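[Automated response] Your request has been received and processed.

Submitted sequence:
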Amino acid sequence: METPPPAPASPGAPTARPGGIVAILAFAGIVAALTQTLVVPLIARLPAMFATSASNASWVITATLLAAAVSTPVAGRLGDLYGKRRMLLVSLVPLVLGSVVCALSSSVIPMITGRGLQGLGMGVVPLGISLLRGVVPAERLGPSIAVMSASMGVGGALGLPFAAAIAENTSWRVLFWVVAALALAVGALIRALVPADRPATAPAGRFDLVGAIGLGAALIALLLAVSKGADWGWSSPTTLTLFAAALVLLPVWARWELRRRDPLVDLRVTARPQILMTNTASVLVGFAMYAQSLVVPQLLQLPEATGYGLGRSMLAMGLWMAPAGLMMMAMSPLGAKLSAARGPKVTLATGSLLIAAGYGLSVPLIGSGSPWSLLLVTLVCNSGVGFAYGAMPALVMSAVPPSETASANSFNALMRSIGTSFAAAVIGVVLARMTTDFGGFPLPSENGFRTAMLIGCGVGLTAAVVAALIPVRTEEAPAETTAPLRPAPATRT
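Generated structure:
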């Protein structure tokens, strides 16, 4: 079925060329992604800055993770009910407020609060991707989705050198003032130039508050156990209780959603093979994407005397990592062309294989003594991530009706987030167990880093297999579905 043209804007509504709309939404994604790596250069300084323990300071990162996980599916559902553009603007409000709170913080509690508020704005990327379906012509939709998806990598990669340069040369508070200003600029551009995706009418359904609370509680229990298990002990009563709570809450929440006429997440749609396997691949790609971002920075910064570290500063490390994020944006048009020619399923499988190839390439290069070898690894891995991240929303949106686009995309983004959380836990355990003594201090060993990269390679290969098995069939899509990209021929499914 052909995609209908975007609905005409109402009189006085903002208008912009499709390229301008994509650029504004990609800019919004970059700003949101900046907040994820913004505090990395500050982690070692936070205990001294706020006179607190390292364990308490780690909540500065955990708070953002939890808030983003809870708010992303909620923002998606509200976007389907009240309009994606409207929810984009709403999502920018806590991002601005959180940045201001962080900039004014003088103790760890306000800092954690501000970071939690910033996490509430992480629905910007899936909302922006979903909005594209209603405001961009069909022939521009595939490349637009790829560019919007790549903005996450660009923002995350640029955040490291940006934050390190500011933190080393001026007050750390400037970081948050800059993000607040950028978020305000994004809001002004969206309000002035991006058209609304639906007229201001009564919402088509009700918001499932109980479902939102249930999913939020289950996600907090699961992700808190995963992210803090290493600190608390994987067999500690707190960690085990949280895992048990998640195992109890998730089935109860699913039963509630299946009985609702207007669920937060339509699990019947999510259970369709195309959506289910795409989300499974998303968890694996999220894991594989994040693993190398945990290993390579450490290799760049560890002392040269270890025999495998490169002794670079935080700023230099960020500069060596930045090209990988830019590679995601550079590869997004190629991924869109491959999706248009062969279908997004092929693009997702190809991207996963590239990620696995990057990890495989790293094993003989670790300990080479050259940052260029690690740069090559990150470029190959992130090329694959650029392919995969552009293909996943296309697969999701081709299998759901327009009325559920934002909710389905947000749930897919949540799956990627869960994958990154598990990557942090698994790779953290590997590097903590495989150590070497360096001047009386335990450091991750060279074999530990190689093992971590081999795990990433295996997960990437698994993601490729899952992607290859996705049953993309046009007859499975609902009658009102509009496929943004030409589906793959049946012989390839």
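Summary generated for your ticket: The longest helix spans residues 138-169. Confidence is low (pLDDT under 50) at residues 1-13, 475-493.
If you did not submit this request, please reply to this message.
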